[in-house]
Predict the 3D structure of the following.
Amino acid sequence: MKRYIIFISTFLASFLLYSGWAGFVEDEFKITEYRGQVVHKVRYEQVLDMGTALMTKPLYKIAFSTGKVLTVPYPIYQKLNIGDYTILLEQKDRIIIPK
C-alpha cells in the first residue's frame, strides 16, 4: 500500500509541475504581431506623482490603419514615419521591428 501511495503522489507532483512549467513556457514565447500603415504618431507627457514631487515621463504612441494604438520606445517612434507600412513584434513588454 505504501508503494502505491508513493507512486500516486510522485505522479501527481510530476503532473502538476509539468502543467505549471508548460504555462510558463507558453507565456515566455508568446509573440504578438502588428501589421499596418502608420497613420498617426503622438508624443504624450505622463505626469508621475512621487509623493511631494511631480515628474514627467514621455510616452510615444503609434496608431495603425487597423485601429490599433501601441505605446512604443523612442527609437521605434523616431524610426517610423507617417504612411510607412510596418510590422512590429511584441513579446512580453518588448516591441521590436523585425528585419
Q: What stands out?
A: The two ends are 60 Å apart (CA to CA). The longest helix spans residues 2-28. The chain is about 35% helix and 45% strand. The chain has a mean pLDDT of 88.
